[in-house]
Design brief:
The protein is α+β, with helices and mostly antiparallel strands. The protein contains five helices and five strands, in the order E-E-E-E-E-H-H-H-H-H. Strand 1 and strand 2 (19-26) form a beta hairpin. Helix 1 runs antiparallel to helix 5 (186-196) and helix 2 packs antiparallel against helix 3.
Length: 202
């Protein structure tokens, strides 16, 4: 396996003293787990933040072997991780992607949609500008994985309808792509929902 492509960092975990295992979403190969030497070091730790867009050079010597990856930062979401609502949205979108998608199954529409969602989160002046896009990403993920969708697209101007759609989608996500997760991924969505409820009209 050898792939050099743009990738979105969806999750990382420590490996040994200084390395990390990163889960990267690519358009060509889908979700890929890869070993990143020095991933916990001063230089690479801010590069491997969930939500960052990177250029990844991913190589594996044999099928079934954990690939190695070299990572270069393209776009950082770091500045928005100190803002509670954008940070909660980025955390949920990337955690959902990392937990729900099987590895090495390409979903080009999901890569494009997640990249667009992350851009919307970082350029919109408020959550009203990206919450419907987040719902659209959740709907697309369900459809890409072959699950039914219980809601239609709400009117972005009707905040109560947006939150109602958000609430109706939650059980479908928990029951279907996240049903077998060992960790409580939905806690990130619950945290985001609590913050969205504080917006005027919610």
């Amino acid at each position: 396996m050898h792939l050099r492509a743009p990738a979105i960092v969806c999750a990382t975990r420590s490996h040994g003293e200084t390395a990390a295992i990163a889960r990267l979403l690519t358009a060509e190969a889908g979700l890929v787990g890869a070993y990143v030497a020095g991933g916990r070091g001063r230089q690479l730790r801010p590069v491997l933040l969930p939500g960052n867009l990177v250029e990844a050079d991913i190589r594996a010597r044999a099928a079934g072997q954990l690939p190695f990856a070299r990572i270069e930062l393209v776009t950082s979401r770091g500045p928005w991780l100190s803002e509670p609502l954008p940070a909660a949205a980025i955390a949920w979108a990337t955690a959902l992607t990392a937990a729900a998608l099987p590895e090495h199954q390409p979903h080009p529409p999901l890569f494009a949609a997640l990249a667009a969602l992350l851009d919307a989160i970082t350029v919109s002046p408020s959550a009203r500008g990206w919450t419907v896009a987040l719902l659209g990403y959740e709907v697309l993920l369900l459809r890409e994985l072959g699950f039914g969708v219980p809601v239609g697209r709400p009117d972005p101007a009707d905040w109560s309808a947006v939150l109602a759609a958000f609430d109706r989608l939650g059980p479908a996500l928990a029951r279907n792509p996240l049903a077998h997760c060992r960790t409580d991924v939905m806690a990130a969505r619950d945290s985001l929902r609590a913050r969205l409820a504080r917006i005027e009209g919610g």
